[in-house]
Amino acid sequence: MGKRGLVLCSVTNVLVFLIGCGLICAGLVVWLSVFPDMFVKELKKNKVLGTNDDGSLNDFTRSWMDSSGLRQNFYFFNYTNVFGIVDRGAKPDVHEKGPYAYKKMTVYEEYTFENGSDELAYRYRTSYYFDAENSCATCRPDDVFLIPDPVFQILMDLTSSYDKICDLLGIVVGELLGGAPASGTEFCTQTLPLLDQEGKIAKFLHQVPSFIGVGIDVFDRYGPFVAVKVEDFLFKGYQDPLFDQFLAKLAEFINSLDLQVPILGALHLPVLTAPSIHLFYNNSVSDTYSILTGLNNYLDIGKVVSFTDNNGTATNGSSLPEQWYPRLLDALG
């Protein structure tokens, strides 16, 4: 090949290089300017919660409400040396088992578009079903585990000092009387003396922290641990032996004092039935939420405008209702 051929090849290579650079630049321009605009237009057009012209839900809304394929996995730790932990302070020896897979089904039972379809108000029902196929080979919902008793932890926290007990009783009495919860100091220094002129209750309250700690072995042979089935702990609920015994002993002690309440006469407490303990609700109905559909601004889609719980308590504008905050947590800090 002569010099002329080499020159032509060089020119061709340069032209190919320049054309390639031009195509890359053109692609970048399209990617950085044209494509984002097309993407945003697509979002504004199709990614909006709403209906089709015939009144049916559009594809985006149907996919948002579709809960098929949702699954929740749970892992449990079985404490195998509870007596060593309680008696000798041994390091916990645990055995992990799982996953216990549950299908999560969400059905939107009520939904309405409001304010010119700018808002969607809805409530849904959530149900869980044991999924044996995606669980471990030996996992069954009726498997029993020894786990730390959550009721014991709560009771120890709420009754760890005389002041906390006073705070708790002030809240309970306030709720029973339909008024605002009394402060712990106010209850124990003003209200309690009216009910307990001989000081028997006050003396008992000072003993409660040690009463809980020392009496735990009497309440249940596993101490601060509880044997519970997987499905009971998660959804169905179980009766905590410590809770039952605590309420029974408390009622027995109060009744033995033979207290005389002004106007009401003798104070007699029935043995209360302890509520069942579980982590989640199955087949439960949610609160009613109102969210933005993204019709006016696609960036606002899903923002919560308001909610009303199942007791009828609603938000006040952009502020949460006062009843939404647990009084117990506010009082105990």
From TrEMBL:
What Gene Ontology cellular component terms go with this record? cytoplasm; membrane
Q: Which compartments is it annotated to reside in?
A: Membrane
Keyword set includes Nucleus: no
Annotated coiled-coil segments of the chain: none
Per UniProt, what is one GO molecular function of this protein? scavenger receptor activity
Q: Provide the alphabetized UniProt keywords.
A: Glycoprotein, Membrane, Transmembrane, Transmembrane helix
PANTHER family named in the record = PROTEIN CBR-SCAV-1 (PTHR11923:SF105), SCAVENGER RECEPTOR CLASS B TYPE-1 SR-B1 (PTHR11923)
Q: Which family does it belong to?
A: Belongs to the CD36 family.
What name does this protein carry? Scavenger receptor class B member 2
Q: Which organism was this protein described from?
A: Steinernema glaseri
